[in-house]
Amino acid sequence: xxxxxxxPVHALSSSPPPPAHLKRQPHSVVFGAPSSSSSSSSxxxxxxxxxxxxxxxxPPRVRDDALFWLRDDSRSDCAVLEALRNENAYQEGVCAPxxxxxxVLYDEMKSFMxxxxxxxxxxxxxxxxxxxxxxxxxxxIHCRRPKNMEYGDNLEAAKPLDVEAVSAEAxxxxxxxxxxxxxxxxxKALHVDGFYDPSxxxxxxxxxxxxxxxxxxxxxxxxxxxxxxxxxxxxxMAYTVDTSGYETYDLRIVRLDTAKKANxxxxxxxxxxxxxxxxxxxxDTIFYCKLDDAHRPYQVYRHTVAESADDDDVKLFEExxxxxxxxxxxxxxxxxxxxxxxxxxTSEAHVIDLDDNNGTPxxxxxxxxxxxxxxxxxxxxxxxxxxxxxxANKTKEYLESTLCTLPVSAVLDGSAKEKxxxxxxxxxxxxxxxxxxxxxxxxxxxxLESVSCFQTFLALSGRRDxxxxxxxxxxxxxxxxxxxxxxxDFHVHQVFFQEPGSTVLEGPNRDYESxxxxxxxxxxxxxxxxxxxxxxxxxxxxFVVKQQEVPGGYDQKDYRxxxxxxxxxxxxTCFDGDEVEANSxxxxxxxxxxxxxxxxxxxxxxxxxxxxxxxxxxxxxxPEFDFKRLPLLNRGFVYAxxxxxxxxxEGRNWYEGATGAKYLTKKRxxxxxxxxxxxxxxxxxxxxxKLCVEGRSxxxxxxxxxxxxxxxxxxxxxxxxxFVDIMTTMCDSTIPLTVTEWEEWGNPNETxxxxxxxxxxxxxxxxxxxxxxxxxxxxxxxxxxxYWEPLKWVTTLRDTASGGPFLSKCDLESGHFSASDRYRY
Length: 825
Known about the structure:
Elements: E1 28-31, H1 46-50, E2 61-64, H2 78-95, H3 99-111, E3 117-118, E4 122-124, E5 127-133, E6 141-146, H4 168-179, E7 208-212, H5 213-217, E8 224-230, E9 236-242, E10 249-255, E11 265-273, E12 277-279, E13 285-291, E14 297-304, E15 314-318, E16 325-330, E17 336-342, E18 347-353, E19 364-365, E20 375-380, E21 383-390, E22 397-407, H6 408-412, H7 415-419, E23 425-426, E24 446-453, E25 458-464, E26 467-475, E27 490-494, E28 503-506, E29 516-522, E30 529-534, E31 542-547, E32 559-566, E33 587-594, E34 607-613, H8 630-633, E35 638-642, H9 653-656, H10 667-682, E36 686-696, H11 698-709, E37 716-720, H12 726-730, H13 738-745, H14 751-760, E38 770-771, E39 774-779, H15 788-800, E40 802-803, E41 806-811
Parallel strand pairs: 34-35, 34-36, 36-37, 37-39, 38-40, 39-41
Antiparallel strand pairs: 1-2, 3-5, 4-5, 5-6, 6-7, 8-9, 9-10, 10-11, 12-13, 13-14, 14-15, 16-17, 17-18, 18-19, 20-21, 21-22, 22-23, 24-25, 25-26, 26-27, 28-29, 29-30, 30-31, 32-33, 33-35
């Protein structure tokens, strides 16, 4: 451990006593089919409609949950609120010796934040839209300004720097291109670090303030804008606001008066809806979703702006399957509204043709629902483009997804509904590469996630070799008018960067006619930057639009990153008997540290380590820059991300395939985290007594289950809004998210899943052994992981385990994503 590291160590032996022992009140939790006397046992109960009766526990199993009374759906019970306040007071008392040091850390974190800043402007129609923040103000200011010229024309003035500033591979590709008459080789792309745009700096000239969140937030303890949608004429703006943290939104529509430049007229409002809305073809129509009693978006309505009352709105779609959530979007072409109805395992999309002026629009299905078939889509010319895990081949499943086309005419005339995916055609110039090719073992596996269509090119987002990736597809021949071949041919280029282990994502792109593609690039040590790729030029140059500024003297050259793998041969058996399979793939960890704290060491030794993990839903924890880590790194910490199974870092197979962690293989996630922690100590990277583990939400479940497997390997734990009361939550279909989550964890009411889920549920497997100090955070209004889960867990830890202290901190004014005020923590 570096001698210059300064972290105060305080004995907590004189800490205040824990809050008074919470009362126990008998309550029976029933697993299995609803009883005939149950008020919720009608024929439409999710357990009866979604689970075969033979799969349910029979006879039902009953257990007592003496802390069930802590659940208060109204968030107003005086006894519950008193318990939460007592826990907050205890946490503050225990941490009081750290108050001054916490202030030091907070001030240091803030010193690395550019408080007055402007986002990269996004071209959209005649304007550029952007957001600003102002020092000491907590919320964003949404703005726009007129475009001064056709977007992209000013890039002609941007020149590449001298050849030394261009990567060796870029120089080689340029030479190949010149030798080949100007054509960039397919499936190769330029390392673009040598290109820079002169200026896209936003000034106050002609700026129009569309929404100042700071003004509206003055009368709310919590204020979150769900979406901001500009109408087709750019004269109206719709935005949604959540003022409780429960993620129920109010829609407001204002008229944008360019002369006023602020304080725009409110012309319409709709209460208690989902946070996403979509405009129709003109300013008269907007589409939105209503929520059911379980907080699920399930109905789509069309609303006439400033004319119809809510009761007069036309219902266009309703999803009856409680596993499916409905979302709205519009194709970039502007022609179709897309109604997506998705569960974790199955997709179904309908489209509304905005060019159809014959009365009430009819949603038309892309393909009839087929369990296990997933897809996303966009539109270009005469084709829909789909990224799907299946195609016309009935026997083939593409775990990592492939690119297909579907004629628009087949959807509009109804044949797509009748013939399904037999009409889908794979794009031959972008073949499926989701499996290792024995003839090309060096080729990395490629996973696709989404497609974005533009008038003259396509952009694909996905992953390659474990990292996020973006591809540009340019047609080899122009379509004849709106007609395009069913399987068009493309030149394919992947966007590469020099920075190893970096993250490349498609940025905000609004205009269908744009010749530029906005991408975002960052790594753990490199602050984010927004770049525009010019698809008109053969060598696909990129230009920096916005580079994140980090004050406080930050220099990325002072920091190092590395990727290490925990191989299966050194991964052992957890003491409860669960084993890591001998053929398990290596688990990758990404590390970051300050170089001068460990001079001469390729990987730090004897360091304090903060280890982060998630591992669920196929979500990827990619290497991204976060200025809040810097005060810890500057004190000698190593920040580590464990890319455990259950996430999607290594593709869909890492989540749900043969080597993944889902349903009855979910324990692999927790075993991976334990083995990563053991590896850090075994290899001497982490000091023997300085390993802190952290996870949020489903990552809190990962942390809780890993602690139960081996509480001694961890020296401290932070669980943010942790999903830890799995059995009681997942058996109750009235709790938001429960029914759809049955396709993630399993249904504990079913025989196949009950015992397995119970065997890793954190609150049900606390050991009578010494656990490390722990902090659990929650939000009173959280609809995703209710506040009572971490409260019950902390109480159980105090009752059963030794060690600690076990602390709970509940924000009484926020939800799942913590405080909305950027200065609060």
